């Protein structure tokens, strides 16, 4: 069966579950950590009144942002906190949803792991491999789940391509090309606090390389069943230095495996939003068509390309929040796309890509981490 989950951002990932869980289930107690990531507003607009998800606290050190959110979403002052640790101590969430800059992910995981609170964050996991490994260690010690959300994790077309690969319908994977990008964060009008850290090399890890390159690294690691690449080669550009003076705004990354290659294209310079993937195997190919369909050609020289629609899978993997609840409450195994293990590898790839671009040479990864 070809898998399908709806493809929406983290905000709707939470919201959609509000209408699918059983009324008999107690609300999942969640805390919001950070208000500087633009996706937080979509989440709060959709989910703050859900009977299935109880927002028990909001932690944000910027007093202005905290006050604005309190007024905008009609939060009781008693659940607004300037400090994460105080929020955890006073309201005891089961999980936190993280909307900070990427650099702060490590601190959030460290604090939550000590208190046994699960963490779900916007992509990517971390700004460096060092941080990713520290987060992995803390999560294991605290026995918590750390899940990373990507919009493309819920694209039916990607899941359909994955299933074709693992059903051997395309033969062994030989090349994967992933495109992710848009006009640029300033050009599309992201919030000032969001733009500030997206264009900060410390807080974001880079520019388009980390913001969009993570998608391709995640998808390729998933398609390759967790296998790490042998080499990473990257070229980054500042096509618009007048806008993005401190970070790259365009990146191309090449990953090599014993019998496969991936080309990851990440950009803040494209005229239209784009998130799609091409998978070429020994005997066929699958090319995603936006979120719901894919073009497939299989078999001999006389075969014809066909366009296919993905099909649904059984719960709890059929929508985002039922999946999150199943992992956190019921102990279900995390899906590889969002898993901590996969995303440590994603961070290793991004870290190596950054070094490759800076040094102008291919980086060979060690056989083991």
Structural summary, described in words:
This protein is of the alpha/beta class and 369 residues long. It is built from 12 helices and 15 strands. Strands 14-13-12-11-7-10-9-8-15 form a 9-stranded mixed sheet. A 6-stranded parallel sheet has the order 3-2-1-4-5-6, with helices on both faces. The radius of gyration is 20 Å and the shape is globular. The two termini are 35 Å apart. The model is unreliable at 1-23 (pLDDT under 50).
Describe the structure concisely for a colleague.
This protein has 12 helices and 15 strands. With 369 residues, it is α/β, with parallel strands linked by helices.
User: Averaged pLDDT, please?
Assistant: 91
Which geometry do the CA atoms define?
A: globular
Give the number of DSSP strands.
Answer: 15
Element order: H for helix, E for strand: HEHEHEHEHEHEHEHHHEEEEEEEHHE
How is the biggest beta sheet arranged?
9 strands, mixed
Strand content: 15-25%
Q: Give helix % range.
A: 25-40%
Note the quaternary state here.
single chain
- Low-pLDDT residue spans: 1-23
Structural class category? alpha/beta
SS element count, helices: 12
Task: Measure the end-to-end span.
Answer: 35 Å
Strand order of the largest sheet: 14-13-12-11-7-10-9-8-15
What radius of gyration results from the CA coordinates?
Answer: 20 Å
């Amino acid at each position: 069966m070809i898998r399908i989950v709806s493809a929406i951002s983290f905000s709707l990932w939470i919201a959609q579950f509000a209408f699918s869980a059983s009324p008999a289930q107690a609300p999942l107690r969640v805390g919001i950590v950070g208000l500087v990531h633009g996706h937080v507003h979509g989440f709060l607009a959709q989910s703050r009144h859900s009977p299935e998800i109880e927002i028990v606290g909001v932690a944000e050190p910027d007093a202005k942002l905290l006050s604005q959110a309190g007024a905008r979403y009609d939060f009781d002052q008693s659940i607004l906190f300037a400090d994460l640790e105080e929020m955890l101590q006073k309201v005891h969430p089961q999980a936190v949803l993280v909307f900070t800059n990427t650099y702060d992910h490590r601190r959030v995981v460290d604090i939550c792991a000590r208190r046994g609170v699960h963490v779900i964050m916007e992509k990517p996991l971390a700004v460096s491999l060092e941080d990713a490994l520290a987060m992995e260690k803390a999560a294991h010690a605290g026995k918590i789940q750390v899940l990373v959300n990507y919009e493309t994790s819920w694209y039916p077309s990607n899941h359909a391509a994955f299933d074709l690969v693992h059903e051997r319908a395309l033969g062994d994977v030989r090349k994967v090309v992933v495109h992710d990008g848009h006009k640029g964060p300033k050009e599309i009008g992201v919030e000032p606090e969001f733009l500030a850290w997206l264009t900060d090399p410390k807080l974001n890890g880079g520019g388009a390389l980390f913001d969009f390159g993570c998608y391709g690294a995640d998808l390729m690691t998933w398609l390759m069943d967790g296998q790490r690449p042998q080499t990473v080669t990257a070229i980054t550009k500042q096509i618009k230095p007048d806008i993005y003076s401190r970070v790259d705004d365009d990146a191309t990354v090449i990953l090599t495996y014993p019998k496969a290659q991936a080309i990851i294209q990440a950009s803040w310079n494209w005229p239209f939003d784009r998130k799609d993937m091409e998978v070429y195997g020994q005997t066929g190919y699958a090319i995603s068509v936006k979120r719901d369909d894919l073009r497939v050609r299989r078999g001999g020289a006389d075969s014809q390309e066909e366009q296919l629609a993905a099909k649904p899978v059984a719960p709890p993997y059929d929508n985002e929040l039922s999946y999150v609840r199943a992992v956190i409450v019921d102990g279900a195994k995390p899906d590889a796309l969002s898993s901590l293990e996969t995303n440590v590898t994603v961070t290793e790839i991004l870290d190596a890509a950054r070094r490759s671009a800076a040094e102008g040479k291919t980086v060979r990864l060690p056989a083991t981490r």
